[in-house]
Write a structure and sequence with these properties.
heterodimer, A: 618 residues, alpha/beta, Pyruvate-ferredoxin Oxidoreductase, domain 3, Rossmann fold, 4 domains, seven-stranded mixed β-sheet, six-stranded mixed β-sheet, 20 helices, 22 strands, 36% helix, 21% strand, B: 346 residues, three-stranded antiparallel β-sheet
């Protein structure tokens, strides 16, 4: 019997691609969780179509899941992949371009009949599995559909259920190919289908059939073994960005002692935060699926007035709808966190694709002078830190805060060396208990040294007061239309946001030297690609630094000083120069831009190429 | 130490609910009467005043919170219902009142209005209906009769007006009542009924805008015509109206007809007996909405049309939290942070 060679590698990228009904997301997630569980570092990139079930076999219906895992530090889901699982012709058509030369294609023959080839828009008469298209690759063809049927013969399951199990065959085969145990997924299946033991048994049986097929079919020449990742010691879990955002708020609620309220309207790719938080009712979390985006945020304003930690979650179009209410929260000076999981815009744009194009609307997207603090998360696990931090700032500084994440990190996952409760910072809450002015007078807009007004909880005796969207008199908060007062209040609200710079961490340099030839200034989800690229180009002898912003407004106090020491600055963004405008406006640095507006994250290779090009362009 | 003294429960007077802000409605506005009746009724409700919160949107009526010495939010146009829902959902201990107008509630806030009603949070909603836009200086509103001539409709408005009662019942309102600014006693009774109802209590208040739509409801509010064009319904009592209570409403099949009690010789007991709990009857009553200039029109009803006991949103939310806390207890934060599946790197 031929034995497949076991090859040691330090990292591998696998892409699962098929119809949105083929279960690729589940397969990818299980594969990822198993890899994580076995101690690999990793990064994932799920990609779904905007349509829920576009016609089967079409290019529009394609769903992909990419995972990059290995024993070295992993910063991105990988630019190109080593293994492509193509469940049908459409998957091959779209995803072959990024398969490494010599890479492995595992193709499900059942998805390559004449009808599927036509749906994939290959020219008439094409036979991509046979006609030389795949000459440069290692191709394993198998009829997954048929083998799943055979494996489940006599199981009593209907055709539909059998058809649905075929992703498990692929998963089993990959576990064999990557020398991984199936135990993690067996436990998962048993838990998931606890009430349907026949379905659980069928899934496990199919997965084992896939594993055994690899072992006995004698067609596979190579298996891969990946060592334990060299990661900092500690206990890890795998986490997705939206999940991290959700538990960041649960922790902020518990640490501040305030009940958590979420008003939200479902929108891709933010809905998972609503789903996740809805599970935490036993933690006193109240979630409200409102009738629209406006009701979502305004109900949160009501909850914030009532003394809750109130948040609202949305994506691009929702931010536009929430603009007026955000202005109200701003002038009311109440704590509120708005999470914008950015996606491709404008309008409905690219609902399932990523982009960083809401920095400007977060900064300026309200009428009148309406400055707000803005934070941005860099990685899936960083969403936890920034959700917690956004809550702290909102509460301690009595202001709405915008937290920007995006589809890439919201749906992507990575191993997370999670903190313990005792590692979490403090969030100080003080509700006013007695009148704060002279002679027992209540002054709802009297400010402290941070320029912050007191939070007054309805129900507190003797502190009845009214707040509203009309301009208010300094200190008393009474309606006031005087010219000078309005100018004063406008400036004091700006000064309050500016002053926040005294209460956030200083800017540090992520990688490289403080006087490097070139600084790559990033923000948000470009972190991984920049980090990986800068490490690589420096390893080749270049002198490049990576500075990554998490505080977008106000900027850290020392940012100007940090940036001034670099000879040049390059700002990569998945938008048409938004941070670049802010940096040029504030510091008058001639920062250069590197923009990608394709609904896709930067690849490490294109980042490296741009860095080298910039270095060479003297 | 606080020098503010708050009277103990039960010893308030209406003055205790008057804020230190000057009331800035036009002289003669119907809003003054509504403010006064609310301030008159509140001492009788037996609630410490710090437990009251007023929420309003935008419009003349929505300035109301500034004039009440309670907690209050003057929010944005049309959104008071959502603000109040969030407040009540998180603070069920508060008595939350929403003040809105026909434009605020039925035009820009129409979506929130219907969704609030179906969800039934325990709110008291005062809908000031003056059939005109006052704060923007006199355009027609979603309750203005078709053909209303205003600055924006110099040749008459084209839109069919909403009938708030029908709209509310269609949206599954659990309490609907109608009253008017010029009948303080009736309004006080209705305010107390609304307060007593657990759920969203909606009161439509006919309110005179003496600047832009003066006399819109005089036919129902003035002595000469009030009794012959309006009808005051009370639970368990027959529907009678007229200057000398000479008319009654009788159901002929599903059709309400006006009968002259003396002339027809029928007994008062054969008339329609008002039943607040009967949604079919309430729906028919809501449709007594004819133009009062139409000869022989059905009278416009005032009073509590409909009451239904249904779980409130805030109670249900609170119960879900309590049930899950009883069943699962609180999850330790360390458990939430670690999730179910972890691994160790040594």
């Amino acid at each position: 019997m031929q034995t497949a060679e076991l090859k040691d590698v330090d990292s591998v990228v696998v892409r699962f691609a098929g119809d949105s009904g083929d279960g690729m997301q589940l397969t990818g997630t299980q594969f990822t969780d198993t890899a994580a569980f076995l101690g690999k570092d990793l990064a994932t990139f799920p990609e779904f179509p905007a349509e829920i079930r576009a016609p089967a076999g079409t290019l529009a219906g394609l769903s992909g899941f990419q995972v990059h895992f290995g024993s070295k530090e992993i910063f991105t889901p990988g630019d190109t992949y080593d293994v492509l699982i193509a469940m049908n012709a459409a998957a091959l058509k779209v995803d072959l371009a990024n398969l490494k030369k010599g890479g492995i294609v595992i193709a499900n023959i059942a998805g390559f009949d004449a009808k599927n080839i036509k749906l994939a828009e290959y020219p008439d008469g094409s036979k991509p599995l046979e006609d030389g298209t795949l000459d440069n690759y290692t191709v394993y063809k198998m009829d997954v559909t048929k083998m799943t049927k055979l494996a489940l013969e006599g199981s009593g399951l209907g055709n539909k259920d059998i058809e649905r199990s075929k992703n498990m065959f692929v998963l089993g085969l990959l576990y064999w190919m990557f020398d991984k145990s199936m135990d993690y997924t067996i436990t998962f299946i048993n838990e998931k289908f606890g009430k349907k033991p026949d379905i659980a048994a069928a899934n496990i049986k199919t997965m084992k059939a896939g594993y055994n097929y690899g072992d006995t079919a004698e067609i596979f020449t190579t298996r891969f073994r990946i060592g334990q990742a060299d990661m900092p010691k500690g206990t890890y879990r795998n986490i997705m960005g939206n999940q991290a955002t959700a538990i960041g708020f649960v922790c902020a609620s518990q640490k501040s002692g305030l009940p958590l309220y979420l008003g939200s309207y479902p929108i891709t790719p933010a809905s998972d935060i609503l789903h996740e938080l809805s599970k935490y009712k036993n933690m006193g979390v109240k979630t409200f699926q409102a009738e629209d985006e406006i009701a979502a945020i305004t109900s949160s304003i009501g909850a914030a007035f009532g003394g809750s930690l109130a948040i609202t979650t949305t994506s691009g179009p929702g931010v536009a709808l929430k603009g007026e209410a955000l202005g109200l929260a701003m002038i009311l000076e109440i704590p509120l966190v708005l999470v914008d999981v950015q996606r491709g815009g404008p309008s409905t744009g690219l609902p399932t694709k990523t982009e960083q194009s809401d920095l400007m609307i977060a900064m300026f997207g309200r009428h009148g002078e309406s400055p707000l603090p803005i934070l941005a998360a860099a990685t899936p696990s960083d969403c936890f830190n920034m959700a917690f931090e956004a809550s702290r700032i909102a509460i301690e500084h009595m202001t709405p805060v915008v937290l920007l994440t995006d589809g890439y990190i919201a749906n992507g996952s990575e191993p997370w060396k999670f903190p313990k409760e005792s590692d979490l910072g403090e969030i100080k809450v003080s509700f006013l208990q007695e009148p704060n002015g002279p002679n027992g007078k209540l002054l709802p807009y009297k400010r402290d040294e941070k320029l912050v007004r007191p939070w007054i909880r309805p129900g507190t005796k003797g502190l009845m007061h009214r707040i509203g969207g009309l301009e208010k008199q300094d200190e008393t908060g009474n309606v006031n239309y005087e010219a000078k007062n309005h100018e004063f209040m406008t400036k004091v609200r700006q000064a309050k946001v500016d002053k926040l710079a005294d209460y956030i961490p200083l800017q540090t340099i992520e990688t490289g030297k403080e006087d490097a030839d070139l600084c790559i200034l990033g923000w948000g989800s470009t972190f991984g690609a920049i980090k990986a690229a800068v490490i690589d180009v420096n390893a080749a002898g270049n002198n490049v630094a990576h500075v990554h912003l998490r505080y977008m407004n106000p900027f850290p106090k020392n940012l100007g000083e940090v940036l001034s020491k670099f000879k040049r600055i390059l700002i990569p963004e998945m938008n048409n120069r938004q941070l670049a405008r802010l940096i040029r406006d504030k510091f008058l640095f001639p920062a250069e831009s590197f923009n990608k507006i394709q609904g896709l994250p930067f690849s490490t290779e294109e980042m490296k190429a741009k860095i080298l090009e910039t270095l060479n362009k003297k | 130490m606080s020098t503010v003294t708050t009277p103990t429960n039960g010893t308030y007077t209406s003055k205790d609910f008057v804020s230190n802000q000057d009331v800035k409605w036009c002289p003669g506005c119907g809003d003054y009467s509504i403010l006064k009746q609310v301030q008159n009724v509140f001492p009788d409700l037996g609630i410490p005043k710090e437990q009251f919160a007023f929420v309003a949107g935008i419009g003349c009526s929505s300035r109301f919170p500034y004039y009440m010495d309670t907690y209050g939010v003057h929010s944005i146009h049309g959104r008071a219902f959502a603000v109040a829902t969030g407040l009540k959902a998180t603070r069920p201990d508060l008595s939350v009142w929403v003040v809105t107008g026909d434009g605020d509630a039925l035009s820009i806030g129409g979506n929130h209005f219907i969704h609030m009603l179906r969800r039934n949070p325990d709110l008291n909603v005062l809908l000031f209906n003056n059939e005109i836009y006052g704060l923007t200086k006199g355009q027609y509103s979603p309750t203005s009769p078709t053909g209303t001539v205003t600055k924006s409709t110099p040749f008459g408005s084209l839109d069919e007006p909403f009938n708030p009662a029908e709209l509310a019942l269609g949206a599954k309102s659990t309490f609907f009542a109608r009253t008017m600014d010029r009948d303080p006693k009736h309004m006080q009774v209705v305010l107390k009924r609304a307060h007593a109802h657990k759920g969203t209590s909606l009161i439509e208040i006919y309110q005179n805008c003496n600047v832009f739509n003066d006399g819109a409801f005089f036919i129902y509010s003035e002595k000469e015509t009030k009794k012959s064009h309006g009808i005051f319904v009370e639970h368990g009592k027959p529907l009678v109206f007229g200057t000398n209570e000479e008319f009654g409403i009788r159901m002929e099949g599903f059709k309400p007809v006006i009968v002259n009690i003396a002339e027809s010789g029928i007994s008062v007991n054969d008339l329609w007996i008002h039943d607040e709990r009967d949604k079919t009857k309430a729906s028919i009553l809501a449709r007594f909405f004819m133009d009062p200039k139409t000869p022989g029109h059905l009278p416009r009803p005032f009073g509590v049309f409909y009451v239904e006991d249904r779980r409130t949103l805030d109670d249900q939310m609170e119960d879900q939290v309590k049930e899950l806390q009883a069943k699962k207890g609180k999850t330790p934060l360390d458990k939430i942070l670690s999730g179910d599946k972890t691994w160790v790197i040594n």
